[in-house]
Design the sequence.
């Protein structure tokens, strides 16, 4: 992405590119049911006087751009016109360009800028976690009404809770020793905590670290900063690349010493592996870090394939439904969570490849929440179709949102992370 050139921010050039791509999509329409962007685009065209794009005004494109959650699904799974096709179509990165243009003009809302500053908000919110969690709790109508009025957050949306201290402080000193009897003993990994697991929820990271240690991996826990995905959603490309610098400086020396870098969240793995190299194409250090980085499920499957897993896995009662998170899919390595869960004896996980609808922080906002539930409903229905005992997703934001979708369709169920099932099958689930 040539985001540092002036041409990238030229509004006439952007409009011409939007029109070129939207017209191809109008003729194709394969993506009609992926998200809300495409229905908005097609309705706009169908309701125009000519029924074609030529009578749609460019000012009406904004809702199409706003509805894109940058999930990458259209690019990865549907579009026959992506490079090297001569149409050179990349819908999500065109939406990103439109947001980058708006961001440079100062049009990103203050609350969106604030929510993207996870490393400013996280330390304060963990320190004041009691108060922060009380205000954001869905049951606190006064607090949520204030957040709705001040920040535009839908009072019905489940917001992430904060832990009472960062994961690096809570778990860093007590990481289990690697299991010397495991076939993979000798491997070493940096577990890149990512902002969500560092500040918000420790249970997934704790389960992951226990599973890795049980499998002989010497784990070092690091959190040098947020990968920048929330800033990417805002189109803040300078913010993303500036934030990458200290993370590369902290993690690359480990990679040079033979450590694997394991990102706890699919979106963050996607950033390190694909988005950073795209934004910093000539940066050899970024490239080297991207090559050393694994998604968590990918890493466990890699251990299983190269060495075999450690003994001790026991069957779990009941079926498993797996929601494939969009940023897992965007890594283009197949459904690794399903591969991982098939390592549990007798497990036959069912895969659901539908969007959860949450779109990062997108689904928290008034005006988006109902759409987020609507988009996630087919995924929710598919996940509970066989009445499984376990519903899992690798995305820690999709999980709580899917719980709200299941609540909305009258089939409430807890949604966990696949690594928590693996930890359970090993008998490694213990309170932190
Ligand atoms: S990236 Fe995802 S949300 Fe955006 S247009 Fe494509 S499918 Fe829709
Ligand atoms: S993104 Fe590609 S597959 Fe989707 S509607 Fe547009 S042209 Fe068709």
Sequence:
């Amino acid at each position: 992405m040539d985001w540092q050139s002036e041409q990238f921010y030229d509004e006439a050039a952007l409009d011409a590119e939007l029109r070129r791509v939207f017209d191809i999509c109008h003729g194709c329409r394969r993506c009609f049911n992926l998200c809300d962007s495409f229905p908005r685009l097609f309705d706009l065209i169908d309701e125009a006087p000519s029924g074609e794009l030529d009578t749609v005004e460019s000012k009406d494109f904004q809702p199409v751009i706003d509805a894109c959650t940058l999930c990458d699904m259209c690019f990865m799974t549907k579009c026959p016109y992506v490079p090297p096709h001569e149409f050179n179509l990349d819908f999500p990165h065109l939406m990103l360009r439109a947001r980058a243009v708006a961001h440079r003009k100062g049009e990103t809302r203050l609350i969106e800028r604030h929510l993207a500053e996870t490393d400013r908000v996280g330390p304060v919110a963990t320190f004041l976690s009691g108060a922060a969690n009380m205000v954001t709790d869905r049951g606190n109508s006064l607090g949520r009404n204030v957040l709705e009025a001040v920040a535009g957050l839908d009072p019905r949306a489940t917001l992430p809770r904060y832990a009472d201290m960062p994961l690096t402080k809570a778990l860093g000193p007590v990481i289990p020793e690697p299991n010397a009897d495991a076939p993979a003993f000798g491997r070493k990994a940096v577990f890149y905590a990512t902002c969500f697991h560092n500040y918000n929820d420790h249970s997934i990271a704790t389960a992951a670290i226990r599973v890795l240690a049980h499998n002989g991996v010497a784990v070092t826990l690091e959190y040098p900063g947020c990968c920048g995905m929330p800033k990417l959603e805002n189109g803040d490309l300078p913010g993303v690349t500036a934030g990458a610098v200290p993370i590369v400086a902290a993690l690359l020396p480990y990679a040079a010493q033979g450590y694997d870098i394991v990102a706890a969240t699919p979106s963050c793995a996607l950033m390190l592996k694909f988005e950073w190299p795209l934004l910093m194409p000539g940066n050899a250090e970024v490239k080297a870090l991207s090559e050393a980085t694994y998604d968590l499920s990918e890493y466990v499957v890699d251990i299983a394939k190269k060495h075999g897993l450690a003994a001790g896995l026991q069957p779990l009662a009941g079926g498993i439904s797996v929601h494939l998170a969009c940023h897992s899919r965007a890594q283009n390595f197949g459904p690794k969570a399903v591969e991982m869960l098939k390592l549990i004896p007798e497990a036959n996980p069912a895969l659901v490849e539908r969007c959860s609808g949450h779109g990062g922080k997108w689904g928290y906002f008034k005006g988006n929440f109902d759409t987020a539930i609507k988009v996630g409903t087919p995924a929710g229905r598919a996940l509970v179709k066989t009445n499984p005992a376990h519903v899992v997703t690798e995305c820690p934001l999709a999980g709580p949102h899917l719980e709200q979708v299941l609540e909305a369709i009258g089939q409430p169920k807890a949604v966990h992370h696949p690594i928590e099932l693996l930890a359970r099958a090993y008998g490694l689930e213990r309170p932190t």
Q: What stands out?
A: The first strand starts at residue 188 and ends at 192.
